[in-house]
């Protein structure tokens, strides 16, 4: 990869840490494809590290580098990123974008090659149910390492930016995803599935507990609706959870598995009576934005990330009974759902891939110019995982008389949260599972030497090989 002579000319930009392009898996891959091809159109050289794809050297102007990975849940990403970072040592780009804070142990390789790097921190990955105690601890350590070793951090939602500001006093670049705005009137592909426009409810998600697929399925069945629920997705690692979802369906839900035909998927989004969005631990979710851009009315799990994107155009649920009630409401007045979908499409206009690309382009120039630099890496407060319903709250902020918590102020008189009291930090809300008094953290211990922190991360990485005790998903 040829390097530019200055930050104002065309740049060489490496994108590391995803499955690569073409985008066939999730939000990171969609972002890499949409941003990468636009950067190419603007004259930049983009290399994307990929885990497969048939040996294609190029995709939409981006250069693909295929490298192997260990095909296990715990080590697939880490092993592939290790090889990608090593490749960059000998084929250095002007700047690198690393996706997923879990890849932080390999950032020193990029820094040793004098490649400025920004890390996309993703969501609160340590809250995903698929990780056992060692995996959760690994992710929390990697958050600290990413803050310490990245030149810049990327957040895709205000709630994520608030989290890193409050936990580490770290600045982030707020760079969301884009929403493809789809035209009305296309539905001819639905006949292949025996579906009609506005004649089904839709769910699109990986079948994982934090995406609440079982909750949506149970609620739809409980509603007794004659309008079918169509579920797109599967459980790549968690067959026990998929079995639980299928049991909850009682034969009344259509499971399509993965749908990789993008035209068909667009028509599924665009003609659904309701799109059900159960994601709870990520930031801005590309599937949600895609549904909005298709003009679907959206009912979403009630967390701050989803409210941040949907605002007043969404309706929200937290349990199967909420789902059942919202299904009945939509079936009783389909026209009101269609009108809400039109307003949702209007709201999606705020999420523009061209504007997102502007942000990544400027960040890359800032990295090359050396005008951004993170520091620190230690948490400002002890970890307090006060978690309920897939949300999080962290200690050390303001508690108002109404129970709201926000960073940067004084505690109320007494500084005590009672069990079950509603709390929020920025757009992230929760109810406390336990509610100790929020007191300032203890004095900081001396920061361990860098080599010790690298060894600590390596031990935790190897610990992911250990089997998790207990069931793979809640029973």
From TrEMBL:
It holds the Pfam family Glyco_trans_1_4. It comes from the Bacteria. Residues 25-169 form the Glycosyltransferase subfamily 4-like N-terminal domain. Keywords: Glycosyltransferase, Transferase. The keyword Signal does not apply. PANTHER family: COLANIC ACID BIOSYNTHESIS GLYCOSYLTRANSFERASE WCAL-RELATED, GLYCOSYLTRANSFERASE. Belongs to the glycosyltransferase group 1 family. Glycosyltransferase 4 subfamily. This is Glycosyltransferase. The lineage of its organism: Bacteria, Bacillati, Actinomycetota, Actinomycetes, Micrococcales.
């Amino acid at each position: 990869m040829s390097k530019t002579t200055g930050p104002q000319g065309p740049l060489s930009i490496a994108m590391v840490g995803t499955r690569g392009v073409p985008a066939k898996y999730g939000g990171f891959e969609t972002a890499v494809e949409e941003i990468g091809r636009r950067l190419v159109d603007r004259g930049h050289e983009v290399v994307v590290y990929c885990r497969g794809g048939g040996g294609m050297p190029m995709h939409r102007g981006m250069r693909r580098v295929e490298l192997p990975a260990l095909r296990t849940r715990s080590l697939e990403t880490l092993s592939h990123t290790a090889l990608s970072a090593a490749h960059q040592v000998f084929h250095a780009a002007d700047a690198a974008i690393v996706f997923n804070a879990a890849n932080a142990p390999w950032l020193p390789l990029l820094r040793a090659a004098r490649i400025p790097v920004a890390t996309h921190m993703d969501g609160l990955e340590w809250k995903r149910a698929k990780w056992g105690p060692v995996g959760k601890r690994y992710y929390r350590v990697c958050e600290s390492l990413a803050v310490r070793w990245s030149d810049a951090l990327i957040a895709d939602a205000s709630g994520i930016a608030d989290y890193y500001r409050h936990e580490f006093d770290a600045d982030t670049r707020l760079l969301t995803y884009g929403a493809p705005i789809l035209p009305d009137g296309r539905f001819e592909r639905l006949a292949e599935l025996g579906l009609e426009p506005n004649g089904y409810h839709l769910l699109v998600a990986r079948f994982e507990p934090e995406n609440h697929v079982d909750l949506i399925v149970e609620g739809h069945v409980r509603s007794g609706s004659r309008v079918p629920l169509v579920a797109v997705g599967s459980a790549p690692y968690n067959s026990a959870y998929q079995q639980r979802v299928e049991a909850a369906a009682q034969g009344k839900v259509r499971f399509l598995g993965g749908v990789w035909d993008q035209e068909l998927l667009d028509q599924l989004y665009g003609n659904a009576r309701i799109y059900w969005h159960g994601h709870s631990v990520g930031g801005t979710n590309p599937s949600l934005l895609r549904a909005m851009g298709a003009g679907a009315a959206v009912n979403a799990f009630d967390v701050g990330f989803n409210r941040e994107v949907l605002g007043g155009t969404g309706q929200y649920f937290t349990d199967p009974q909420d789902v059942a009630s919202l299904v009945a409401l939509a079936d009783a007045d389909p026209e009101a759902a269609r009108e809400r979908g039109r307003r949702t499409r209007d709201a999606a206009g705020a999420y523009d891939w061209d504007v997102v690309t502007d942000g990544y382009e400027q960040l890359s120039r800032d990295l090359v110019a050396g005008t951004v630099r993170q520091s620190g890496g230690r948490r400002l407060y002890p970890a307090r995982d006060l978690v309920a319903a897939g949300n999080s709250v962290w200690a050390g902020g303001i508690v108002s008389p109404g129970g709201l918590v926000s960073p940067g102020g004084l505690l109320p008189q007494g500084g005590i949260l009672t069990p079950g009291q509603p709390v929020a930090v920025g757009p992230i809300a929760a109810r406390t599972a336990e509610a100790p008094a929020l007191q300032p953290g203890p004095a900081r211990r001396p920061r361990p030497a860098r080599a010790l922190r690298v060894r600590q991360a390596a031990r935790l990485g190897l610990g992911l090989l250990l089997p998790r005790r207990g069931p793979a998903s809640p029973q």
